[in-house]
Amino acid sequence: MRSDKADPQEFGLSTLAVRAGQQRTNEQEHSEPIFTTSSFVYASAEEAARKFSGDEPGNVYSRFTNPTVHTFERRLAALEGGERCVATSSGMAAILSVALAVLEAGDEIVASRSLFGSTISLFDKYLGKFGIRTQYVELSSLAAWEAAITPKTRLLFAETPSNPGSEVVDVSGLAEIAHRHNALLAIDNCFLTPALQRPLSLGADLVVHSATKYLDGQGRGIGGAVVGSDALLEDVFGVVRTCGPCLSPFNAWMFTKGLETLALRMRAHSDNALRLATWLEAHPAVKRVHYSGLPCHPQHELAARQQAAFGAVVGVEVKGGRQGAWSVINATRMLSITGNLGDTKTTITHPATTTHGRLSDEQKAIAGITEGLIRLAVGLEDFCDIQADLAVGLDAL
Ligand SMILES: *Cc1c(COP(=O)(O)O)cnc(C)c1O
Protein backbone atom coordinates (compact mmCIF):
# COMPACT_ATOMS: atom_id res chain seq x y z
CA MET A 1 0.00 0.00 0.00
CA ARG A 2 3.04 2.29 0.01
CA SER A 3 3.10 2.22 -3.77
CA ASP A 4 0.83 4.16 -6.08
CA LYS A 5 -0.55 0.91 -7.51
CA ALA A 6 -4.16 -0.13 -7.09
CA ASP A 7 -4.88 -0.86 -3.45
CA PRO A 8 -4.60 -4.59 -2.92
CA GLN A 9 -7.95 -6.17 -2.17
CA GLU A 10 -6.45 -8.71 0.21
CA PHE A 11 -6.48 -6.10 2.96
CA GLY A 12 -9.46 -6.06 5.31
CA LEU A 13 -12.11 -3.39 5.16
CA SER A 14 -10.93 -1.51 8.25
CA THR A 15 -7.36 -1.43 6.93
CA LEU A 16 -8.52 -0.08 3.57
CA ALA A 17 -10.68 2.52 5.34
CA VAL A 18 -7.63 3.83 7.20
CA ARG A 19 -4.96 3.53 4.53
CA ALA A 20 -6.21 3.04 0.97
CA GLY A 21 -5.58 5.74 -1.59
CA GLN A 22 -3.02 7.75 0.31
CA GLN A 23 -0.20 9.19 -1.81
CA ARG A 24 2.44 11.06 0.14
CA THR A 25 4.21 14.11 -1.23
CA ASN A 26 7.98 14.44 -0.96
CA GLU A 27 7.44 15.84 2.54
CA GLN A 28 6.29 12.34 3.64
CA GLU A 29 3.41 13.72 5.73
CA HIS A 30 1.68 11.07 7.84
CA SER A 31 -1.88 12.40 7.63
CA GLU A 32 -3.53 13.23 4.29
CA PRO A 33 -2.95 16.86 3.21
CA ILE A 34 -5.48 19.21 1.55
CA PHE A 35 -4.54 20.58 -1.86
CA THR A 36 -6.51 23.82 -2.07
CA THR A 37 -5.47 24.78 -5.56
CA SER A 38 -7.51 25.26 -8.71
CA SER A 39 -4.70 24.42 -11.14
CA PHE A 40 -1.22 22.88 -11.42
CA VAL A 41 2.05 23.97 -13.06
CA TYR A 42 4.53 22.06 -15.23
CA ALA A 43 8.29 22.05 -15.70
CA SER A 44 8.01 22.48 -19.46
CA ALA A 45 5.62 22.95 -22.37
CA GLU A 46 6.22 19.29 -23.27
CA GLU A 47 5.09 18.10 -19.83
CA ALA A 48 2.01 20.35 -19.97
CA ALA A 49 1.10 18.90 -23.37
CA ARG A 50 1.48 15.31 -22.12
CA LYS A 51 -0.65 15.97 -19.00
CA PHE A 52 -3.39 17.76 -20.94
CA SER A 53 -3.61 15.03 -23.58
CA GLY A 54 -3.76 12.36 -20.90
CA ASP A 55 -0.64 10.62 -22.30
CA GLU A 56 0.91 11.09 -18.87
CA PRO A 57 -1.18 10.81 -15.71
CA GLY A 58 -1.19 13.87 -13.50
CA ASN A 59 -3.11 16.87 -12.34
CA VAL A 60 -4.47 19.52 -14.66
CA TYR A 61 -7.33 21.43 -13.09
CA SER A 62 -9.28 20.75 -9.89
CA ARG A 63 -12.64 20.47 -11.65
CA PHE A 64 -11.47 17.00 -12.67
CA THR A 65 -8.14 16.14 -11.05
CA ASN A 66 -7.09 17.05 -7.53
CA PRO A 67 -4.84 14.92 -5.29
CA THR A 68 -7.05 15.26 -2.19
CA VAL A 69 -10.18 14.34 -4.13
CA HIS A 70 -8.26 11.48 -5.74
CA THR A 71 -7.31 10.06 -2.33
CA PHE A 72 -10.98 10.01 -1.30
CA GLU A 73 -11.93 8.40 -4.63
CA ARG A 74 -9.33 5.67 -4.33
CA ARG A 75 -10.19 4.94 -0.72
CA LEU A 76 -13.92 4.63 -1.44
CA ALA A 77 -13.27 2.54 -4.58
CA ALA A 78 -11.19 0.14 -2.46
CA LEU A 79 -13.94 -0.12 0.16
CA GLU A 80 -16.68 -0.77 -2.40
CA GLY A 81 -14.46 -3.19 -4.32
CA GLY A 82 -14.80 -1.10 -7.51
CA GLU A 83 -12.16 -0.36 -10.13
CA ARG A 84 -12.74 3.36 -10.01
CA CYS A 85 -14.62 6.07 -8.14
CA VAL A 86 -15.54 9.61 -9.22
CA ALA A 87 -16.42 12.06 -6.45
CA THR A 88 -19.19 14.64 -6.86
CA SER A 89 -20.41 17.78 -5.11
CA SER A 90 -23.44 16.00 -3.57
CA GLY A 91 -25.34 12.74 -3.62
CA MET A 92 -27.79 14.23 -6.10
CA ALA A 93 -24.89 15.25 -8.36
CA ALA A 94 -23.71 11.62 -8.26
CA ILE A 95 -27.11 10.36 -9.43
CA LEU A 96 -27.40 13.09 -12.10
CA SER A 97 -23.90 12.25 -13.36
CA VAL A 98 -24.83 8.56 -13.70
CA ALA A 99 -27.96 9.51 -15.63
CA LEU A 100 -26.07 11.83 -17.99
CA ALA A 101 -23.38 9.21 -18.49
CA VAL A 102 -25.50 6.17 -19.30
CA LEU A 103 -28.87 7.45 -20.64
CA GLU A 104 -30.09 8.97 -23.89
CA ALA A 105 -33.39 10.59 -24.86
CA GLY A 106 -36.01 7.84 -25.20
CA ASP A 107 -34.37 5.50 -22.68
CA GLU A 108 -36.29 4.25 -19.68
CA ILE A 109 -35.44 3.76 -16.00
CA VAL A 110 -37.07 1.27 -13.68
CA ALA A 111 -36.71 2.39 -10.07
CA SER A 112 -37.95 1.48 -6.63
CA ARG A 113 -40.88 3.65 -5.57
CA SER A 114 -39.50 4.18 -2.05
CA LEU A 115 -36.53 6.23 -3.35
CA PHE A 116 -35.17 9.39 -1.75
CA GLY A 117 -37.59 12.20 -2.70
CA SER A 118 -35.14 14.34 -4.68
CA THR A 119 -34.14 11.30 -6.74
CA ILE A 120 -37.78 10.89 -7.79
CA SER A 121 -37.95 14.62 -8.68
CA LEU A 122 -34.72 14.35 -10.67
CA PHE A 123 -36.04 11.38 -12.64
CA ASP A 124 -39.57 12.72 -13.25
CA LYS A 125 -39.16 16.48 -13.49
CA TYR A 126 -35.72 16.89 -15.05
CA LEU A 127 -34.83 13.67 -16.89
CA GLY A 128 -38.49 13.62 -17.99
CA LYS A 129 -37.88 16.90 -19.84
CA PHE A 130 -35.42 15.07 -22.07
CA GLY A 131 -37.76 12.20 -22.88
CA ILE A 132 -36.43 9.76 -20.29
CA ARG A 133 -39.30 7.96 -18.59
CA THR A 134 -39.15 6.29 -15.17
CA GLN A 135 -41.39 3.47 -14.00
CA TYR A 136 -41.62 2.85 -10.25
CA VAL A 137 -42.04 -0.60 -8.71
CA GLU A 138 -42.24 -2.20 -5.29
CA LEU A 139 -38.62 -2.50 -4.11
CA SER A 140 -38.75 -6.06 -2.83
CA SER A 141 -40.69 -7.67 -5.70
CA LEU A 142 -38.31 -9.02 -8.36
CA ALA A 143 -41.34 -9.98 -10.46
CA ALA A 144 -42.50 -6.34 -10.46
CA TRP A 145 -39.07 -5.15 -11.61
CA GLU A 146 -38.99 -7.63 -14.45
CA ALA A 147 -42.55 -6.82 -15.52
CA ALA A 148 -41.72 -3.09 -15.77
CA ILE A 149 -38.75 -3.61 -18.09
CA THR A 150 -39.26 -2.74 -21.79
CA PRO A 151 -36.81 -2.90 -24.70
CA LYS A 152 -36.04 0.77 -23.94
CA THR A 153 -35.01 0.12 -20.32
CA ARG A 154 -31.37 1.00 -19.83
CA LEU A 155 -31.07 1.52 -16.06
CA LEU A 156 -32.46 -0.15 -12.93
CA PHE A 157 -32.07 2.06 -9.87
CA ALA A 158 -32.69 0.95 -6.27
CA GLU A 159 -32.07 2.08 -2.74
CA THR A 160 -31.82 -0.84 -0.30
CA PRO A 161 -32.83 -0.87 2.50
CA SER A 162 -35.55 1.69 1.90
CA ASN A 163 -36.07 4.68 4.15
CA PRO A 164 -37.99 4.66 6.45
CA GLY A 165 -39.76 1.39 5.61
CA SER A 166 -36.64 -0.80 5.87
CA GLU A 167 -37.69 -2.85 2.83
CA VAL A 168 -34.89 -4.81 1.14
CA VAL A 169 -34.30 -6.07 -2.39
CA ASP A 170 -32.25 -9.11 -3.39
CA VAL A 171 -29.39 -7.30 -5.17
CA SER A 172 -28.00 -10.45 -6.86
CA GLY A 173 -31.43 -11.33 -8.21
CA LEU A 174 -31.97 -7.79 -9.46
CA ALA A 175 -28.54 -7.71 -11.14
CA GLU A 176 -29.36 -10.95 -12.94
CA ILE A 177 -32.64 -9.47 -14.23
CA ALA A 178 -30.93 -6.23 -15.31
CA HIS A 179 -28.21 -8.05 -17.24
CA ARG A 180 -30.61 -10.46 -18.90
CA HIS A 181 -32.35 -7.37 -20.36
CA ASN A 182 -29.13 -5.53 -21.28
CA ALA A 183 -29.69 -2.92 -18.60
CA LEU A 184 -27.38 -1.60 -15.88
CA LEU A 185 -28.09 -1.85 -12.16
CA ALA A 186 -27.22 1.13 -9.93
CA ILE A 187 -27.60 0.90 -6.15
CA ASP A 188 -27.78 3.89 -3.82
CA ASN A 189 -25.70 2.51 -0.92
CA CYS A 190 -26.10 5.56 1.28
CA PHE A 191 -27.78 3.91 4.27
CA LEU A 192 -25.49 0.91 4.78
CA THR A 193 -22.18 2.04 3.22
CA PRO A 194 -19.54 -0.51 2.10
CA ALA A 195 -18.95 -1.33 5.76
CA LEU A 196 -22.26 -3.21 5.78
CA GLN A 197 -23.15 -3.91 2.13
CA ARG A 198 -21.08 -4.12 -1.06
CA PRO A 199 -23.48 -4.07 -4.02
CA LEU A 200 -20.74 -4.47 -6.67
CA SER A 201 -19.79 -7.84 -5.18
CA LEU A 202 -23.47 -8.83 -5.52
CA GLY A 203 -23.49 -8.01 -9.24
CA ALA A 204 -24.52 -4.33 -9.36
CA ASP A 205 -22.78 -2.22 -12.03
CA LEU A 206 -22.71 1.10 -10.22
CA VAL A 207 -22.91 2.31 -6.64
CA VAL A 208 -23.91 5.87 -5.84
CA HIS A 209 -23.39 7.63 -2.53
CA SER A 210 -24.44 10.68 -0.69
CA ALA A 211 -21.19 11.14 1.26
CA THR A 212 -23.16 13.69 3.26
CA LYS A 213 -24.59 10.82 5.27
CA TYR A 214 -22.61 7.98 6.85
CA LEU A 215 -19.37 8.25 4.82
CA ASP A 216 -18.75 11.51 6.62
CA GLY A 217 -20.98 10.41 9.47
CA GLN A 218 -20.62 13.61 11.42
CA GLY A 219 -22.97 15.98 9.63
CA ARG A 220 -20.24 18.33 8.44
CA GLY A 221 -20.72 18.78 4.71
CA ILE A 222 -22.29 17.82 1.38
CA GLY A 223 -20.71 15.46 -1.15
CA GLY A 224 -21.23 12.33 -3.22
CA ALA A 225 -19.56 9.64 -5.30
CA VAL A 226 -20.08 7.02 -8.00
CA VAL A 227 -18.17 3.70 -7.97
CA GLY A 228 -17.93 0.96 -10.61
CA SER A 229 -15.88 -0.39 -13.49
CA ASP A 230 -13.20 1.63 -15.29
CA ALA A 231 -15.28 1.64 -18.48
CA LEU A 232 -18.48 3.00 -16.90
CA LEU A 233 -16.62 5.42 -14.65
CA GLU A 234 -14.73 6.89 -17.60
CA ASP A 235 -18.12 8.10 -18.87
CA VAL A 236 -19.11 9.42 -15.43
CA PHE A 237 -15.73 11.16 -15.20
CA GLY A 238 -16.42 12.78 -18.58
CA VAL A 239 -19.70 14.21 -17.23
CA VAL A 240 -18.09 15.60 -14.08
CA ARG A 241 -15.14 16.98 -16.06
CA THR A 242 -17.40 18.75 -18.57
CA CYS A 243 -20.47 19.69 -16.54
CA GLY A 244 -18.62 20.54 -13.33
CA PRO A 245 -20.42 18.93 -10.33
CA CYS A 246 -17.03 18.27 -8.71
CA LEU A 247 -16.20 17.75 -5.03
CA SER A 248 -14.20 20.43 -3.22
CA PRO A 249 -10.79 19.34 -1.88
CA PHE A 250 -11.74 20.39 1.64
CA ASN A 251 -14.85 18.19 1.68
CA ALA A 252 -12.89 15.34 0.07
CA TRP A 253 -10.35 15.57 2.90
CA MET A 254 -13.14 15.58 5.50
CA PHE A 255 -14.77 12.48 3.95
CA THR A 256 -11.40 10.71 3.67
CA LYS A 257 -10.90 11.18 7.40
CA GLY A 258 -14.55 10.17 7.97
CA LEU A 259 -13.93 6.87 6.18
CA GLU A 260 -11.19 5.98 8.66
CA THR A 261 -13.80 5.32 11.36
CA LEU A 262 -16.52 4.01 9.03
CA ALA A 263 -16.44 0.34 10.05
CA LEU A 264 -16.44 1.19 13.76
CA ARG A 265 -19.20 3.74 13.41
CA MET A 266 -21.51 1.58 11.30
CA ARG A 267 -21.15 -1.31 13.73
CA ALA A 268 -21.97 0.99 16.68
CA HIS A 269 -24.92 2.63 14.84
CA SER A 270 -26.29 -0.82 14.02
CA ASP A 271 -25.84 -2.15 17.56
CA ASN A 272 -27.70 0.82 19.05
CA ALA A 273 -30.42 0.62 16.38
CA LEU A 274 -31.03 -3.11 16.88
CA ARG A 275 -31.29 -2.70 20.66
CA LEU A 276 -33.66 0.24 20.21
CA ALA A 277 -35.84 -1.59 17.64
CA THR A 278 -36.07 -4.62 19.96
CA TRP A 279 -37.09 -2.44 22.90
CA LEU A 280 -39.58 -0.40 20.84
CA GLU A 281 -41.24 -3.54 19.47
CA ALA A 282 -42.20 -4.61 22.98
CA HIS A 283 -43.45 -1.16 24.08
CA PRO A 284 -47.24 -0.97 24.57
CA ALA A 285 -47.50 2.44 22.81
CA VAL A 286 -45.89 1.04 19.64
CA LYS A 287 -48.00 -0.44 16.84
CA ARG A 288 -45.18 -1.54 14.54
CA VAL A 289 -41.42 -1.31 14.09
CA HIS A 290 -39.77 -1.28 10.64
CA TYR A 291 -36.23 -2.61 10.93
CA SER A 292 -34.74 -5.43 8.88
CA GLY A 293 -32.68 -6.56 11.90
CA LEU A 294 -35.79 -7.79 13.72
CA PRO A 295 -36.50 -11.51 13.17
CA CYS A 296 -40.20 -10.66 12.49
CA HIS A 297 -39.24 -8.42 9.52
CA PRO A 298 -40.57 -10.16 6.37
CA GLN A 299 -37.13 -9.97 4.69
CA HIS A 300 -34.95 -10.50 7.72
CA GLU A 301 -33.22 -13.56 6.24
CA LEU A 302 -32.38 -11.81 2.97
CA ALA A 303 -31.10 -8.75 4.84
CA ALA A 304 -28.96 -10.94 7.09
CA ARG A 305 -27.51 -12.68 4.03
CA GLN A 306 -26.61 -9.63 1.93
CA GLN A 307 -25.77 -7.17 4.72
CA ALA A 308 -23.17 -7.37 7.50
CA ALA A 309 -25.60 -5.59 9.85
CA PHE A 310 -28.84 -3.64 9.57
CA GLY A 311 -27.89 0.03 9.75
CA ALA A 312 -29.07 2.98 11.80
CA VAL A 313 -32.51 3.81 10.43
CA VAL A 314 -35.53 2.55 12.40
CA GLY A 315 -39.18 3.33 11.55
CA VAL A 316 -41.64 3.16 14.43
CA GLU A 317 -45.42 3.56 14.22
CA VAL A 318 -46.88 4.76 17.49
CA LYS A 319 -50.47 4.84 18.71
CA GLY A 320 -52.51 8.01 18.31
CA GLY A 321 -51.64 8.97 14.73
CA ARG A 322 -50.08 12.38 14.11
CA GLN A 323 -50.77 13.67 17.64
CA GLY A 324 -49.17 10.57 19.15
CA ALA A 325 -46.07 10.88 16.97
CA TRP A 326 -45.73 14.60 17.58
CA SER A 327 -46.09 14.20 21.36
CA VAL A 328 -43.29 11.57 21.41
CA ILE A 329 -41.08 13.89 19.32
CA ASN A 330 -41.88 16.95 21.44
CA ALA A 331 -41.18 15.10 24.69
CA THR A 332 -37.55 14.44 23.74
CA ARG A 333 -34.90 16.62 25.34
CA MET A 334 -31.79 15.28 23.63
CA LEU A 335 -32.63 13.80 20.23
CA SER A 336 -32.27 16.19 17.27
CA ILE A 337 -35.59 17.04 15.60
CA THR A 338 -34.52 17.29 11.96
CA GLY A 339 -35.05 15.72 8.56
CA ASN A 340 -31.41 14.76 8.15
CA LEU A 341 -29.65 11.51 9.05
CA GLY A 342 -26.20 9.98 8.92
CA ASP A 343 -24.85 11.70 11.99
CA THR A 344 -23.27 10.70 15.31
CA LYS A 345 -26.27 12.44 16.88
CA THR A 346 -29.58 10.54 16.90
CA THR A 347 -32.17 12.31 14.76
CA ILE A 348 -35.96 12.03 15.04
CA THR A 349 -38.32 12.89 12.17
CA HIS A 350 -42.06 12.85 11.43
CA PRO A 351 -41.89 11.87 7.74
CA ALA A 352 -45.58 12.52 6.92
CA THR A 353 -45.23 16.26 7.65
CA THR A 354 -41.55 16.84 6.75
CA THR A 355 -39.43 14.68 4.43
CA HIS A 356 -42.47 13.13 2.73
CA GLY A 357 -44.86 16.06 3.36
CA ARG A 358 -45.25 16.89 -0.33
CA LEU A 359 -46.44 13.41 -1.32
CA SER A 360 -50.16 12.91 -2.01
CA ASP A 361 -52.14 10.73 0.40
CA GLU A 362 -52.02 7.93 -2.15
CA GLN A 363 -48.24 8.21 -2.57
CA LYS A 364 -47.84 8.23 1.21
CA ALA A 365 -49.94 5.09 1.50
CA ILE A 366 -47.82 3.33 -1.14
CA ALA A 367 -44.60 4.40 0.60
CA GLY A 368 -45.96 3.29 4.00
CA ILE A 369 -45.79 6.81 5.45
CA THR A 370 -48.56 6.78 8.06
CA GLU A 371 -49.42 9.69 10.37
CA GLY A 372 -48.15 7.75 13.39
CA LEU A 373 -44.77 6.92 11.82
CA ILE A 374 -41.58 8.29 13.38
CA ARG A 375 -38.17 7.82 11.77
CA LEU A 376 -35.15 7.45 13.98
CA ALA A 377 -31.61 7.56 12.62
CA VAL A 378 -29.90 6.11 15.64
CA GLY A 379 -26.63 7.79 16.58
CA LEU A 380 -23.67 6.97 18.75
CA GLU A 381 -24.86 8.28 22.13
CA ASP A 382 -25.12 5.81 25.03
CA PHE A 383 -28.02 3.47 24.32
CA CYS A 384 -29.71 4.08 27.67
CA ASP A 385 -29.82 7.84 27.05
CA ILE A 386 -31.50 7.43 23.64
CA GLN A 387 -33.96 4.98 25.16
CA ALA A 388 -34.74 7.23 28.13
CA ASP A 389 -35.36 10.23 25.84
CA LEU A 390 -37.92 8.28 23.81
CA ALA A 391 -39.50 6.61 26.82
CA VAL A 392 -40.81 9.94 28.19
CA GLY A 393 -43.26 10.45 25.33
CA LEU A 394 -44.00 6.78 24.70
CA ASP A 395 -44.82 6.02 28.35
CA ALA A 396 -47.28 8.94 28.35
CA LEU A 397 -49.21 7.72 25.27
C1 LIG B 1 -29.40 12.36 1.11
C2 LIG B 1 -29.59 11.31 0.10
C3 LIG B 1 -29.32 11.55 -1.25
C4 LIG B 1 -28.89 12.90 -1.77
O1 LIG B 1 -27.66 13.27 -1.26
P1 LIG B 1 -27.20 14.79 -1.08
O2 LIG B 1 -25.80 14.67 -0.63
O3 LIG B 1 -28.12 15.42 -0.08
O4 LIG B 1 -27.33 15.44 -2.41
C5 LIG B 1 -29.45 10.51 -2.14
N1 LIG B 1 -29.87 9.29 -1.73
C6 LIG B 1 -30.16 9.04 -0.44
C7 LIG B 1 -30.60 7.67 -0.06
C8 LIG B 1 -30.04 10.03 0.52
O5 LIG B 1 -30.35 9.77 1.79
Broad structural category: alpha/beta
Highest-level CATH class of the largest domain: Alpha Beta
Globally, the shape reads globular
Q: Strand-residue fraction?
A: 5-15%
* C-alpha end-to-end distance: 56 Å
CATH structural fold name of the largest domain: Aspartate Aminotransferase, domain 2
Could you tell me which ligands this complex binds, including any ions or cofactors? pyridoxal-5'-phosphate
| Helix percent band | 25-40%
Number of domains: 2
- The CATH architecture of the largest domain can be given as 3-Layer(aba) Sandwich
* Rounded Rg: 22 Å
Number of strands: 12
The major beta sheet can be summarized as: 7 strands, mixed
Lateral arrangement of strands in the main beta sheet: 1-7-6-5-4-2-3
What does the oligomeric state look like here? single chain
Give the number of helices: 15
CATH superfamily annotation of the largest domain: Type I PLP-dependent aspartate aminotransferase-like (Major domain)
Detailed description of the structure:
This protein is an alpha/beta fold and 397 residues long. The protein has two domains: 10-259, Aspartate Aminotransferase, domain 2; 262-396, Aspartate Aminotransferase, domain 1 (Alpha-Beta Complex). 40% of the residues lie in helices and 15% in strands. It has helices at residues 13-19, 45-53, 67-80, 91-102, 117-127, 142-148, 171-180, 193-196, 230-243, 249-259, 262-281, 300-306, 321-330, 361-367, 383-396, and strands spanning 84-88, 108-112, 133-137, 153-159, 184-188, 206-210, 224-228, 286-290, 313-318, 336-337, 347-349, 373-377. The strands form two sheets. The chain has a seven-stranded mixed sheet, sandwiched between helices. Helix 7 links the parallel strand 4 and strand 5 (184-188). Helix 4 runs parallel beside helix 5 and helix 4 (91-102) packs across helix 9. Pyridoxal-5'-phosphate is lined by residues 90-92, 116, 118-119, 159, 188, 190, 210, 212-213, 222, 224.
